UniProtKB/TrEMBL annotation:
Subcellular location: Cytoplasm
Pfam families named among the record's database cross-references: Acetate_kinase
Entry protein name: Acetate kinase
Organism, scientific name: Candidatus Thiodictyon syntrophicum
Enzyme class per UniProt: transferase
Lineage, uppermost ranks: Bacteria, Pseudomonadati, Pseudomonadota, Gammaproteobacteria, Chromatiales
InterPro entries: Ac/propionate_kinase (IPR004372), Aliphatic_acid_kin_short-chain (IPR000890), Aliphatic_acid_kinase_CS (IPR023865), ATPase_NBD (IPR043129)
Site for Transition state stabilizer, residues: H181, R241
Subunit comment: Homodimer.
Amino acid sequence: MSDAILVVNAGSSSIKFSVFLDRDGERAIDPLLSGQLEGVTTAPRFRARDAAGTLVAEQHWTQPLGHNGAVEHIADFLREPLSVHRLAAVGHRVVHGGLAFAAPVRLTPAIVAQLEQLIPLAPLHQPHNLAPIKTLLTNHPHLPQVACFDTAFHRGQTEIAQAFALPPVITERGVRRYGFHGLSYEYVASVLPDYDARAAQGRTVVLHLGNGASACAIADGKSVASTMGFTAVDGLPMGTRCGNLDPGVLLYLMDEMQMDVRAIETLIYKESGLLGVSGVSSDMRTLLESAEPRAQFAIELFVYRIALALGSLAAALGGLDAIIFTAGIGEHAAPIRERVCRAAAWLGVTLDPAANNAARGAARISTADSRTAAWVIPTNEELMIAGQTRDLLSRLP
């Protein structure tokens, strides 16, 4: 019998899960199965696959399940595959750790209460991250649970990199740049030596491009600067989030369009980004296939803003040895990678078009003589969470 670690990533409309086996005496953590339940508040769809990627379960509903119902269904599904293993712990992705949490932590009701205070900083994510934690604390109080934070990887940045130009009476309340997608960046940094030792020891910009998008400057495996700041709405344009925005625009919306706080929140989180600019979709695949001029404009804006961020982050690093593409768009949208690499030619990137188009999984997409390397490296936040969960619990009495 092996110990099993369940990893849960609960979002606003979906719950993703993975199960890993921690075999006694072995360093590696082996995947057992993974799945997700999407559309939990609309028309739920459940799929699960084994470690080889084979579909082992699928179910659809016509009525919403809600997050509690989704958690119950996943728990029922896991009962059989976990019957021959010992569920040792549950690791959770928690978007915001604030000032108090710069490393994984074992969850207690008191810590959950602290994390609830951070909901205003991540209103789309934090409440849903915490929901299954609270359910498990109630129903299985002795089951170890660990929170792994998307902000933690960036907490080692300098005070200057984390600071806003605001009075201390505000910044001392925790108003600063936190950065997000840290679990993804930490994973990529941990495996980069396997692919490019020079980049791993040098200066790299990782582009986490998905429905949520950001970029991070990494030097010798450590976060130096990130495009996301106080909240996960900052930085690059995303699927439905606006990204970087002049604060004066918000004042204009309040004064001239009579928008209140909740209306502005909906606008910048749910109605902007690729969806808002294109008027077509938040999905890059749909936009790339669309002949609609606004769809093409949204793509051009997305690439342009990435190119600006590359220049800024290269400046923070004092040079650049590699750029890495990861997450859904970064791993699968060759046309976006091509446009970004073309825009980064001045930084020493020479794209290999054939390698870019053929890239499946981890692959170098720049030419052999490119001064700055370009890579695609798939992220694996779930594996990072499983490893952090195991390592923390092994240190606790």
